[in-house]
Amino acid sequence: MKTKECNKKVKNMFPEFRELIHRLREENPRFAHLFERHEELDREICQLELNPVNQINTDIETLKRQKLKLKDEIYYLLKQN
After folding, report:
1. What's a Pfam family in this record (predicted)?
2. What distances in angstroms separate CA 29 from CA 6, 22, 40, 69, one per listed residue?
3. Distance in angstroms between the alpha carbons of the first and the last residue of the chain
């Protein structure tokens, strides 16, 4: 998967909350940190997956689980607002 495709995925995450995401990123430091960390993990995973040797790497799976946990936390905060 190309990095450009990965960045597009993050931008399209929770499209129904697009305006709220923008507002919370500016107003809520915790939300902004979670969202930024999610983006960082997404970029890191995409870079690792570009190399076929890494595709069976368990570190990638660990990163994906961390990213999913962050996404769950982000969604929880979105639903509360």
Report:
1. DUF465
2. 24, 12, 16, 18
3. 33
What is the value of pTM for the model shown?
0.81
Give the CA distances from residue 53 to residues 3, 12, 18, in Å, rounded to whole numbers and listed in that order: 17, 28, 36
For 14, the token pair is: 């929770």
Q: Which two tokens stand for residue 36?
A: 């930024």
| Secondary structure (H, E, C), 20-64 | HHHHHHHHCHHHHHHHHHHHHHHHHHHHHHHCHHHHHCHHHHHHH
> Which amino acid belongs to residue 14?
F
- Tell me if 3 sits within 8 A of 43, measured CB to CB: yes
3-class DSSP state of 81: coil
